[in-house]
């Protein structure tokens, strides 16, 4: 496995060189710059969407942890893969960007579908205050004694 990790950048470089040979060096450079810009735009867009969801949850009192849904984080990963120059990482990013492929890949990697929302917060009636139970209590630090 370590050998594959060490060889990966060289394989990426080889694929870029082959792209340059098949087309031209200028088109290979343009391709790398194009995927860099696409990755940066996607990463910026995902960042704004995640921040928007966090702010929405803070205003409505929902849990912030469930705001970072798997789909949004996967698209952030795809953006990072697009920023890394190379054809293999770009192909992996394409698999992650396409919604049905992303969900199928997640099901294969995780073994099952995971919930992205906390069921305790679904269908919460704000007038009745129904929701998770808050437990009050007292504590004492033992290392201060």
Short description:
The chain has one domain. It is built from five helices and no strands.
Description of the molecule:
This protein has 145 residues and is mostly helical. The chain has one domain (11-113). The protein has five helices and no strands. The chain is elongated. Mean pLDDT is 80; it is low at 123-127.
Chain-averaged pLDDT = 80
> What global shape is seen?
elongated
Distance between the termini: 50 Å
- Major pleated sheet: none
What is the strand content? Answer: under 5%
Query: By helix and strand content, what is the structural category?
Result: mainly alpha
C-alpha Rg (nearest Å):
22 Å
SSE series: HHHHH
* DSSP strand tally: 0
Q: Write down the domain tally.
A: 1
Ranges with pLDDT <50 over ≥5 residues? 123-127
Q: Which percent range fits the helix content?
A: 55-70%
* Helix run count: 5
SSE blueprint and pairings:
Elements: H1 2-22, H2 25-60, H3 70-83, H4 87-97, H5 99-110
Helix pairs in contact: 1-2, 2-3, 3-4
Name its key features.
145 residues; mainly alpha; 5 helices; 65% helix; elongated
């Amino acid at each position: 496995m370590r050998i594959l990790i060490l060889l990966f950048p060289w394989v990426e470089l080889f694929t870029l060189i082959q792209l340059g040979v098949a087309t031209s060096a200028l088109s290979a450079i343009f391709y790398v710059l194009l995927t860099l810009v696409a990755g940066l735009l996607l990463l910026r867009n995902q960042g704004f969407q995640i921040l928007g969801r966090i702010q929405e949850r803070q205003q409505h009192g929902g849990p912030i942890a469930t705001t970072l849904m798997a789909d949004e984080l996967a698209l952030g990963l795809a953006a990072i893969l697009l920023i890394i120059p190379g054809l293999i990482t770009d192909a992996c990013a394409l698999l992650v960007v396409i919604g049905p492929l992303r969900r199928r890949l997640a099901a294969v990697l995780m073994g099952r579908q995971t919930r992205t929302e906390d069921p305790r917060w679904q269908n919460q009636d704000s007038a009745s205050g129904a929701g998770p139970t808050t437990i009050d209590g007292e504590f004492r630090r033992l290392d201060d004694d």
